Amino acid sequence: AAGLAAAGESVGGLSFAAVGVLTVGAIGGGLLASWLAFIRSKFLEAFDEVDGALASDEQLSFVQQKTFYAFVPNAKTQQQHGIVLYPGAFVHEHAYAILARKLARKGYVVVVLRSPLRLSPFAPKRADAAIECFAQVRSWAVGGHSLGAQTASGFITKGKHANKVKGLVLLGAYNSTKDLSGYARLYALTILAEHDKIIMLANVEKHDHLLPPTRKIETVRGGNHSGFGHYGPQLFPRPDGQRTISLEEQQEQVVNLLAAWLPLVWDA
Fold it and tell me: How far apart are CA 172 and CA 254, in angstroms?
């Protein structure tokens, strides 16, 4: 674990450099089976309670595809804007279902991507397929949790449909992979958690200059790293801090922060 955390810039304990080094090293050394076993040993499953959220109701339609799932408001007037989220490293994509569903109820198409081996750098442009699937959405934000936010930052510069993206969301994360400081028309929101022990505030401050001038930082008081999803506890690469608020309260704060910020992005 210590070796992973030290191999390049790290978010959620795993870096793009570490992913590349481990992949090449494992395959090149004939250790693929051992490498896959190591990766799977770090998997973080979603809480059972998310199962009830993976369904349609009178307000939302639940859409399941091979590479993503989405919550789509039934009212066509609420299908004009959307957000795509990349999960954190090793975290099952369903862990973000309750957060995504609550945000969709605010009037947005919300997509959560599925990553190969639960590592978003293995499919960095997967947001393109989701954007193509919802042609009625005029403008998008992309974002993610932890390592997923790093991948989303890269999509801004390389995605086929990056021209449709007006906002970047970093949940319990920072951007150290792409210099977005020149993207004056891109809005960026970082949401941190007070008791997050996975993401160090010093690293957030160190890489702040890589975000566009529109960047904004908010903090969930009482929250922790795993509280951006329904999973945990997170112990890799070090134990996460303890929440002093309920998981429901943390996610309500996150949804409210996003709901207050997103209209500023669409109206820009």
Answer: 11
